[in-house]
Amino acid sequence: MSAPAPWILLRGLTRDSRHWGRFHGQLSAQQPEARIVALDLPGNGALSRERSPANVEAMAEYCRTELRRRGIAPPYYLLAMSLGAMAAVAWAARHPQELSGCVLINTSMRPFSRPWQRLRPSAFLALLQLALTRPPAAAAEQIILRLTSAAPEAAAAVLGDWSAWRSEQPVTLANTARQLLAAARFTAPRIRPPTRFLVLAGMRDTLVNPRCSLALARAWDCPLAEHPSAGHDLPLDDGSWVAGQAARFRAAER
Q1: CA distance 241 to 65
Q2: By the 8 A CB rule, do 19 and 235 touch?
Q3: Whose CA is closest to 231, among 86, 87, 82?
Q4: Calpha distance 74→146 (Å, rounded)
Q5: What is the pLDDT of residues 61-102, one digit of tens each?
Q6: CATH architecture assigned to 7-251
Q7: What distance lies between CA 57 and its chain's CA centroid?
Q8: What is the pTM of this model?
Q9: Using CA atoms, how far apart are residues 217 and 220, in angstroms rounded to an integer?
Q10: Which of 32, 160, 165, 217 counts the most CB atoms within 10 A of its CB?
């Protein structure tokens, strides 16, 4: 009997595998039989000295190559948020035979959403100020957590670690710009790629308008689950809820 398809976790803009935090254990508790592999995108985390691709498709190809290098064969389940979810869609569009399903968290993409929905104007101004002023790590992470989390206690609990990671492996301004460019340029197929999808949306997302997730689910006629009180970083705000949704999504295939 073959091993169950592993979960591959992909984070978003300038974040890395460490930022999944407790969620790795929460997902494992829901699906103890499944292997869980969190990857860094080039330019982030352990790959902070590498050049970030300026297109999402290249990010997806990096992930495929890295899994092969590690000897982890398809099929895979992808659980990905924001920019990572765009990479998951690019993967599904090009290599659907490698995937058993994708869970997309708080993502946004052309042609389904407008630019001001994909990145709220107030969030853009905050990120621009962050890029121009380059504040100390703790101050920078406080700004990011205010944009991405609607759970103050959860955000406060990770601030120390996230600040340390920013200091240890900073994402360069050039790589940040390339990741933003890749996200802005990416266009999803109008017709859903031939694999299963589940879309998750935090309805208190102040970075990306939740309507982006709703528009994608409607266009692709795929299931959508809305969390009424979570922000952009759904795995941080309510990881148990995300893990439960992923477990039910996987079980529905059987």
Answers
A1: 31
A2: no
A3: 82
A4: 37
A5: 999 999 999 999 999 999 999 999 999 999 999 999 999 999
A6: 3-Layer(aba) Sandwich (3.40)
A7: 15
A8: 0.95
A9: 5
A10: 217
